[in-house]
Design goal:
The protein has 155 residues and is α+β, with helices and mostly antiparallel strands. 34% of the residues lie in helices and 37% in strands. The protein has one domain. The longest helix is centred in the first third of the chain and has 21 residues.
Length: 155
């Protein structure tokens, strides 16, 4: 009888563990990056730079990078990129209608490359990327911050 009770407990505990792990949510990098890409794309404000920039590319990749490229009317190209795991903090300067999002990194972790500039091509490092945004509420900025912070905590 003791053997049967022990086996029953063992099976019950195993079944409980399997069921609880089946319904738990395993957050993945892809979930966070998809959210970030969607949020930044929806709220990007090209009107802040319309006189200078003819087009832009803003990508948050599934392998954990944020890439922002601006093509200026005069032919100059600026490229910014950083690994999301290096995120430190964000600041937003402006109103809910229009403002600028500063994505800050721990050190000089932002790659900055300039092409076709009058002064020549330049490669350097920076501590932040500035992205113009519009129609963004405080709650949405908090969700962006939370997703970036969760990426840092991923194994």
């Amino acid at each position: 009888m003791k053997k049967f009770t022990f086996c029953l407990k063992l099976v019950s505990v195993s079944a409980f563990c399997i069921l609880s792990s089946a319904f738990s949510t395993n957050d993945s990098l892809e979930e966070y990056t998809v959210f970030l890409q969607k949020s930044l794309s929806e709220h990007y404000d090209s009107s802040q730079e319309i006189k200078l920039v003819k087009k832009y590319e803003l990508n948050v990749t599934n392998n954990g990078f944020c890439r922002y490229k601006r093509y200026f009317n005069n032919g100059k190209v600026e490229y910014f990129a950083f690994k999301l795991a290096k995120f430190k903090d964000l600041d937003y300067y402006g109103t809910t209608t229009s403002g600028q999002l500063y994505l800050r990194t721990k050190n000089d972790d932002v790659i900055v490359q300039t092409y076709k500039d009058k002064t020549g091509d330049v490669d350097s490092m920076a501590t932040c990327i500035v992205i113009p945004l519009k129609n963004v509420e405080a709650e949405e900025l908090n969700q962006i911050r939370e997703n970036l912070e969760r990426i840092i905590k991923l194994p």
